[in-house]
Amino acid sequence: YILSDASPTLLLAGYGTVLFKNNDVFDYDMRFYNIPFTQNANSQPIDYLWRQTHMLAGYTSGNWAAKIGDINAYSSGFFGAMGRGIGGEYKLNATNTIGGVFTAALGTPIYSGTVFHQIRLPKSMLLRSSLSIVNDNYNKLNTYGASVQLTCPLLNGQYVTALVGAAATQHNYNNQTFLE
Q1: Distance between CA atoms of residues 80 and 100, nearest Å
Q2: Helix (H, G, I), strand (E, B) or coil at 80
Q3: How many CA atoms lie less than 13 Å away from 165 in the CB half-sphere?
Q4: DSSP secondary structure string, 19-56?
Q5: What's the rounded Cα separation, in Å, for the pair 57 and 161?
Q6: Spatial contact of 73 and 67, defined as CB atoms under 8 Å apart
Q7: N or C terminus of the chain: which is more exposed, having fewer CB within 10 Å?
């Protein structure tokens, strides 16, 4: 007996970095996972490819950077925006950077956003603070979070990080919400 009905699939990937004369950088990464060889494998091939694709493109110039695609945790590391979206950062001066991101989950109505501020302190220490929200319309929850992260050099090439964060969840459902 056959225990599984698996057919062969294909992976296509392309990634690279383009360096411009003015020191701007364009990075890209595109991966198409599990592309079936037969049409029967999926009745909606465009939707299937959209969900099975990993993509990220970024452009960095003097004082700013922008990213579009699959973004993960643009905040202080414990709570932040995840999904497919757009984000960026801007260097206000040599020590201060601000930024933000907005993302949407694939296949579910979950949206998230993060704004952050980062400051470079003396002795190569880095202080980062962020505010985040996750609006989960599927489970009828909103989660709000804030965090502060301090990174300090320890030894040559080694760092130690302390992170303090808090989150609160708001329930947006009643007894009838999940009966539909």
Answers
A1: 10
A2: coil
A3: 22
A4: E-TTS-EEEEEEEEEEEESSGGG-S-HHHHHHHHEEEE
A5: 28
A6: no
A7: N
What are the structure tokens assigned to 87, written together? 């984000």
* Alpha-carbon gap, residue 82 to 73, rounded angstroms: 6
Q: Which are the contacts of 3, defined by CB distance < 8 A and separation ≥ 6?
A: none
Distance of alpha carbon 136 from alpha carbon 150, whole angstroms: 29
- What tokens were used for 50? 């959209």
The neighbour count for residue 14, using CB atoms within 10 Å, is 10
The DSSP bridge pattern shows strands 9-19 and 25-36 to be antiparallel
Q: Which residue has the tokens 């690279």?
A: 16
Quote the tokens at residue 45: 């091939």
Contacts of 43 (CB under 8 A, 6+ apart): none
Rounded to the nearest 10°, the torsion over CA 99, 111, 26, 129 is: 20
